[in-house]
Design goal:
There is one protein chain. This protein is of the alpha+beta class and about 400 residues long. It is built from 13 helices and 20 strands. The strands form 6 sheets. It has a 6-stranded mixed beta sheet with strand order 12-11-17-18-20-19, covered by helices on one side. It is globular, with a radius of gyration of 26 Å.
Length: about 400
């Protein structure tokens, strides 16, 4: 980093990726900022810059790098983090820049004696992480999958047995239609669809309700989609319709592969078809359904939004339909080190591996996991449409498809 680049950074206040510090700070306070960055999206700490007025004071501590690595990183940060350290010589004094990448072993803690405290970056401040944030961090690291958490108040009776038996017959070739309750519970438990709760009783897991729940929305208010159709190109109070869909993911097909009982994806696609599909004559006699926005791309995005969302978030996924575009917003930012650029390159990360496995079994998702790149990006390109816009916030991931002008 050059002196000029440093001046450009300190011309602005602290933010979610930048922290200014004097080297006289106590080690545990420095560790707090390090841990918060590692638990979020990474960041930089500039030692020798006063955070009150953003003036360069310079770092005067002898052997500062050695002290930082041995004392702060070595004694106060756990699990271990290896940062990038560099120094910039300025007319006002030496500035040490420490870059912390987003951690892959979250959650990280500040260790003081027998106590370990997790912090997370929120805006320009570092705060103690709450229970949900800790669960989310563990989930991002792959230590814990929230989809297998028991849902309070549920039991075996909240699983749709017809859907499960149909799935089991098709997938494993075993007919459970005559099975007693104990055998069905055993099979559901083996697949993590029923799990033991803290009272050692069986409850439906989040995955169990999402896939085979009789009424998933009764217990999971964040399940499914809210679909809103606006009359223009902006969010407004008036709308054509505003409806929630919270059916289970599973559907029932006959021997010809025709859907005879729709699940969540089929039902929402039918609704979108009312807007984006039309009948056209192909040869002057026969009619076929033509989608204004490719059906394959829309279906892939719906599946991704349900399968890859963060179920620790309490809001429901939203589909917003405007005259010029459709927005599909999924709850939860991209997991771990996944970025929009990596998605476009075909990289994948499974936040909810059980949901992924069942989606593949249902034929809703390909096994290679390259859906966004191959099915969405390439399909839109081949149709001569504008490239989809992907956006990430601290809480959601949103993908926008623009309606063709013709």
């Amino acid at each position: 980093m050059t002196y000029q680049e440093l001046l450009e950074i300190i011309a602005n206040p602290e933010n979610s990726k930048v922290e200014f510090k004097l080297d006289s700070e106590r080690p545990e306070r420095i560790a707090k900022e390090i841990v918060a960055f590692a638990n979020f999206r990474g960041g930089r700490i500039f030692f020798g810059v006063d955070n009150n007025n953003r003036e360069i004071k310079g770092s005067s501590k002898e052997n500062f790098e050695e002290w930082l690595m041995d004392t702060v990183f070595g004694r106060y940060v756990t699990p271990s983090i290896i940062p990038l350290y560099e120094e910039i010589n300025t007319p006002e004094g030496r500035v040490a820049v420490v870059t912390i990448e987003q951690g892959i072993n979250k959650p990280y803690f500040v260790k003081e004696g027998d106590r370990e405290t997790p912090y997370i970056r929120i805006g320009s401040t570092s705060q103690i992480a709450d229970r949900e944030q800790i669960l989310r961090m563990a989930q991002e690291s792959g230590y814990y999958h929230f989809e297998i958490a028991p849902v309070s108040g549920t039991s075996f009776q909240d699983i749709d047995k017809e859907l499960f038996i149909h799935y089991y017959r098709n997938e494993f070739g075993e007919d459970l239609s005559g099975a007693d309750e104990d055998l069905l519970i055993e099979k559901l438990n083996q697949l993590d669809l029923l799990v033991r709760n803290s009272f050692n009783e069986f409850s439906a897991s989040i995955a169990g309700l999402v896939i085979f729940g009789k009424n998933p929305g009764r217990f999971l208010s964040n399940h499914g989609f809210r679909v809103i159709h606006y009359p223009g190109n902006d969010i407004e109070t008036n709308h054509h319709f505003d409806q929630a869909y919270n059916l289970p993911l599973a559907s029932v097909k006959n021997e010809k592969g025709e859907v005879i009982r729709s699940g969540l994806i089929e039902t929402v696609m039918n609704k979108l078809g009312e807007i984006y599909a039309r009948e056209e004559l192909t040869d002057g006699i026969h009619r076929e359904t033509v989608w204004i926005i490719p059906e394959r791309a829309l279906r892939e995005l719906l599946v991704n939004a349900i399968i890859h969302r963060d179920y620790t978030k309490r809001n429901r996924n939203e589909i917003r339909i405007f005259n010029d575009r459709i927005e599909i917003e999924s709850q939860g930012r991209l997991p771990n080190t996944l970025t929009i650029e990596k998605i476009k390159a075909g990289q994948k990360y499974q936040r909810n591996p059980i949901l992924v496995r069942f989606a593949q079994d249902f034929g809703l998702m390909e096994h290679k996991g390259l859906g966004i790149r191959k099915i969405v990006i390439e399909t839109l390109r081949n149709a001569g449409m504008k490239e989809a816009l992907m956006e990430e916030t601290e809480e959601t991931f949103k993908l926008t498809i623009f309606r063709p002008l013709h």
